[in-house]
Amino acid sequence: MLAVTEAMRCLAQGERRSSLIALKRDRQDEVGVLFSAFAGYRASLERSDALAREAELERQQLAAAAANMPVGLCMFDAERRLVLCNQSYADLYHVPEPLTRPGTPWIDLMRFRIAAGLYAGHDPEKYVQQLTETIDRAERTVSLVELRDGRTIDLIHQPLPGGGWLATHHDVTDLRRSEAKISYMARHDGLTELPNRILFRERADEFVIIQTAVDQPVEATALAQRVIDGLSAPYVVDGHGVMISASIGISIAPDDGIDADQLLKTGDMALYRAKAEGRGTYRFFEPE
User: Fold this and answer.
1) What pLDDT score was predicted for residue 219?
2) CB 78 within 8 Å of CB 163
3) How many CB atoms lie within 10 A of CB 72?
4) Going by C-beta distance under 8 Å and a sequence separation of 6 or more, which residues neighbour residue 163?
5) Count of domains in the chain?
6) What pLDDT was estimated at residue 119?
7) Over the stretch 84-97, which tens digit does the pLDDT of each residue have?
8) Which CATH number goes with the domain that contains 254?
9) Residue 35 clears pLDDT 70, i.e. is over it
10) What range defines the domain where residue 143 resides?
11) Quick one: 201 and 274 in the same domain?
């Protein structure tokens, strides 16, 4: 009996080896039953230890894979405790090392982010409530989150079997800005920065710009000079420097015309005058 007691103490302290395995299995008295129960308990602990080691190995392998990901990644268990997060996630939200350790409650991470102003919207409690509802629904969600610091995060929330979830956080701020710039360039003239809908080509080497709701003739003068300066910049074509110039004729409604045909005609007359007086200049229409 003393041997069983000592063996149980060793098991409680994590020691799995015991001399009790030398006992005969065919002993049928109360001590034999106790010994059998002890052997079964020890075997169960050994299996648990093996499963724990296997789980830890898998966690380490997952952590190693996550460390090489360019986006932030975090995983939480069914108790909403951190299983792992990679360095990209920590860097994205400036998370201190103690909060990146396995077992950290999800709510502690959220409290840190809120204190740092790294959340969406103006109401932090509402933000946490929305995230809590997403977790409770256990549904995959994909969303773009606008943080208060101006960054845009592409967030994917993926529930896991048995509870918990995996989430990726991708900072797409620069990508969104590039997309916005490309969209702007597609809708505006690169030289004048005017919307393309008011810039159209009239002839092979001529185009018309319509300028509205501005202070004339001051704004027309400034725009004409910008166009001339832009077109007069040197170009390199097939390794050769190329210089061009531009002449601009300006007509202003309603003094120079009240419809498109009249304005084009008076604008042409001003253009001919600009060309006659020297290229690389502009002239306003002047009645004869």
Assistant:
1) 87
2) yes
3) 23
4) 77, 78, 79
5) 3
6) 92
7) 899 999 999 999 99
8) 3.30.70.270
9) no
10) 69-177
11) yes
